[in-house]
Design a protein that fits this description.
Two copies of one chain form a homodimer. Chain A is of the alpha+beta class. Chain A is 31% helix and 24% strand. The first copy, chain A, contains six helices and nine strands; from the N terminus they run E-E-E-E-H-E-E-E-H-H-H-E-E-H-H. The longest helix of chain A is centred in the middle third of the chain and has 18 residues. The radius of gyration of chain A is 21 Å and the shape is globular. The relative contact order of chain A is 0.13. Chains A and B meet through strand 1, strand 5, strand 6 and helix 6 of A and strand 1, strand 5, strand 6 and helix 6 of B. Chain A binds a DNA duplex through helix 4.
Chain lengths: 249, 249
DNA sequence: TTGCGCTGGTGTAAAATACACACTAATTTC
DNA sequence: GAAATTAGTGTGTATTTTACACCAGCGCAA
């Protein structure tokens, strides 16, 4: 095994945007930095990639140390490698996002985890390094992915109501959806299993509970089925047009 | 400036899938390796990222050394970091693809370029390292990107006929498109400038020449216009269904 | 100069889909 | 048992997508 000249080497890390969904809000798990640089500021959880560790493995490790969760949805998004993105030297980072059920999440004993906290995506302003940019990029990617793959369920408990699912989509897509159309669309895909159970302990008509039928999805997928759940461009276009017209009087 | 422990460092490269379009085929520029490992095999052009060089800059450098072209469409796709992807040590690589007009391409004097050659995507089988996987990933990404952004024009000469454009899309999407519908759709976007010129030197009725109107696109984009040029999923689904039915008789 | 070969160019009708929209049903709480 | 709250449901219309076939214009060769 030949060693490459040190000249060509650089430090590299993974950073993980861990999304959760709670109280109707899309949230991200951030860590308060306890050391320079950016001491005291919030940052994305991340760490160096070990020399004998695959990239995805590193991202999973960061995730597990922090949340105790394994087998979580994880998607590589983009690599950020601006020369000056780290004040102490050249550090290239591979950004991932992952989707966790906050209900499954347990604070881990690892010292790093004690400084972790969920933040609503909408309220995050400043972050250490270029992490604000990374977060935005990952959020965009999530917005996109969720419309083409049935990954939204990763953020909900195993059983959920259609209204919860709709609220999840509304939070991610930052838009409002029509209830009847949403239900029609999602049910017509045949990927939701009606559990013949209803909500308990709510002060109103209880909703039916559903489960995502992953096996069925995999079967459908093999037959060329495409999941698609998105706001039509027609509506979007009209909204934009309206806004422009209002802006110009 | 603190140095990170060498333990966390590793070699870092960019690999570039350079797409071109010629004779109705989508092609990729490959290099015949002149050294170990994989000596004599075809590989994607790539090189180490210099310590003081942004990632995108490195990808552009590789591209320019090889083709002499600047200001070319370039898109970061994915980072490949399996521990054993390079037999001589840990090398993480960021994959890009770029789109060049083969007509602009001139063989460069750089020694590396002398071993370069265009290969039709469809006919590439084995490549050095994990480059076959990288190529496939980039090809998928191109397929996707081309439907949502007007980047196909980057592969054509500045002036082109609608038939050429259609053939380009057919080559990338690996499908056939309906002539009338294609023309209707692309013209209705209003992004093509009719040059009031016609083909010369063809042994049949000459076609009108068009140019992509980038300025107009940018203006439209600011108003929320979305480029979209894709095979409908309905047709796809039907085709797949038909194929399945035939397969099962 | 005529006819053949080739590619360019065009419209319409039918089907599928996206959209907007409002009331009744079931449950808890007071 | 009335009030409050959320669940659940169907239809008509606008728009988009799809399928489909013929005539036009040019070069070339007979």
């Amino acid at each position: 095994m030949t060693e490459f000249d040190n000249f060509f080497k650089s430090a590299f890390t993974v950073d993980n945007v861990i999304f959760g969904f709670d109280e109707g809000d899309l949230k991200v798990l951030l860590i308060k930095r306890g050391e320079a640089p950016y001491m005291g500021q919030w940052a994305l959880p991340g760490y160096f990639v070990y020399p004998n560790e695959d990239l995805d493995a590193a991202a999973n490790r960061v995730l597990e140390e922090l949340t105790g969760l394994r087998n979580v949805y994880l998607e590589q998004v983009k690599t950020f490698g601006a020369v000056d993105r780290h004040p102490f030297g050249r550090v290239i980072t591979v950004a991932y996002f992952s989707l966790v059920k906050i209900s499954d999440y347990r604070l881990q004993p690892a010292s790093i985890a004690r400084k972790a906290q969920w933040h609503p995506v909408a309220q995050i302003s400043e972050l250490a390094f270029d992490h604000a940019e990374i977060l935005q990029t990952c959020f965009q990617r999530l917005k996109n992915s969720v419309q083409w793959r049935p990954i939204g369920f990763e953020l909900l408990p195993p059983q959920f109501t259609l209204t919860e699912l709709q609220h999840l989509y509304e939070a991610i897509l930052e838009t409002e959806l029509d209830k009847r159309n949403f239900r029609k669309k999602i049910l017509s895909m045949g990927l939701l299993l009606d559990l013949d159970q209803i909500q308990e302990g709510v002060a109103h008509r209880p909703a039916k509970l559903y489960r995502f039928d992953r096996e069925k999805y995999l079967r459908f997928q093999a037959e060329g089925f495409h999941f698609e759940l998105k706001e039509g461009k027609r509506k979007e276009a009209r909204q934009r047009k309206k806004m422009l017209e209002e802006a110009w009087g």
